[in-house]
Amino acid sequence: MQSWQMQDAKARLSEVVKRAERDGPQDITLHGRSVAVVLSRERFDQLSGQAASLVDFMQASPLAGLDDELVFQRDPGLTRDLDL
Domain 2-59: which topology? Predict the structure, then answer.
C-alpha cells in the first residue's frame, strides 16, 4: 500500500485517487501516524456489501419466481388488542 503524507495527498489528490483505482488502497499519514485510507469506489462497494442493489438481492432469493406458490396467512381482523 502506498503511503502519502497529508500535505502531499492534499496537493496531489487527483493522483492519489487515480492510484487508488489503479493500484489499490492509498494510506494517508499525519505526523507519521496512519489516519485515513483512500479506496476506489469498486473496492469500497465490495467491502461494504453495497455492490448489489436491492433488486439484485431479491432476484437472487431462493423464493424468486415462486409468486403463485407462496401463500401467506393473513389475519382478516382490522385491529388487535394490546396490553399496555
Answer: YefM-like fold (3.40.1620)
Residue spans of the domains in the chain: they are: 2-59
Q: How far apart are CA 25 and CA 36, in angstroms?
A: 10
Q: How far apart are CA 13 and CA 60, in angstroms?
A: 38
Q: What is the pTM of this model?
A: 0.59
pLDDT tens track for 50-70? 666 788 888 888 888 887 787
Q: Is the dihedral of CA 45, 51, 53, 54 positive or negative?
A: negative
Measured distance CA(66)–CA(35) in Å, rounded: 49
- Averaged pLDDT of the chain: 88
Longest CA pairwise span in the chain (Å): 66
Bridge partners of 30? Answer: 33
Residues of the chain with pLDDT > 70, as a percent, come to: 96
